[in-house]
Amino acid sequence: MNISVLGAGSWGTALAMVLVGNGHRTTLWARRAGLVDEIRTMGTNHHYLPGVRLPRELSATDDAAEALSGAEMVVYVVPSASMAEVVEATSRWVPHEALLVHAVKGFDPATHRRMSQVILAAHPGAASRVCALTGPSHAEEVARGLPTTLVAAAYSRQTAERVQDALMNATLRVYTNPDVVGAELGGALKNIIALGVGIADGLGYGDNAKAALMTRGLAEISRLGRAMGASPLTFAGLSGVGDLIVTCTSRHSRNFRAGRLLGQGRPLPEVLNEIGMVVEGVTATKAAVEIAAEHGVEMPISRAIYQVLFEGKQAEEAVEDLMGRERGRELEEVARDLIPPDWQRA
Predict the structure, then answer these.
(1) What pTM was estimated for this model as a whole?
(2) From the candidates 190, 210, 286, 313, which is the catalytic residue?
(3) What structural domains does the chain harbor?
(4) Where is the active site (predicted)?
């Protein structure tokens, strides 16, 4: 298959390596001519994947028209804030029948659209060819061939299975899922919770607090997801709890590392400068709080993180406010239909 990967960050480069290894003719597009030159001449992408050797068969270009020429599959792997611009600017060169895959975990900051919606805005009528690629996956591990699982979520089973076939190999297993909304929300919203877990770590809190944030964070994700038409089962799978776990616990997680620095009292601009790459949880927090308000969904953890990020609230105060909230009933918040009748009457 002839495949174009748009975006030469860590994840785009890692996916391109997988596709080349699986025998696909793969072209990696980067904005910067200097990065393209490094990939071509040195076989490296040092800033995003230090210490990793790229396959010789991987082509690279900064010319989008060249990258997309004859593509049977286009994989968008750019920051969510740039997605609309890239999709719109490149749409004229995308072959009409190409599969449109994205591996971007976030929202459009201006419109709060999910990434599949951004693609469809530029490619109306292409829903059957759109696929969201998500799941618990750090580029650093995929690039080194460590065992990883992903989810290909698409409206069309045939599209999901074509993406599955293109990517699967001995170390990368891909599952299909028809719930595009749930898969995209799980991938975007878990970054917010990872910020919160990082903040807790930076404050010196222990495993109890981190487990509570992850679990109650998953409840928030599920509540918003159900309100937006997603299946609750999706959040119990790889693109839900699986992605949440890896992002909240790994040294590779930018969101966790950013949160830890915030918990240590560092200001947001300084934190983002130190991380040196996009921290999707920051823009996702703003979008999620506003989307939740539109749907009348409570997301207290996300709201607390929003206050820390954008309203100058101290992290310790945000935690105190969360702990002092009105008492709640766990199961009732997640799945009211599972509550025994005698509990419902009490």
Answers:
(1) 0.92
(2) 190
(3) 2-178 (3.40.50.720), 184-336 (1.10.1040.10)
(4) 190
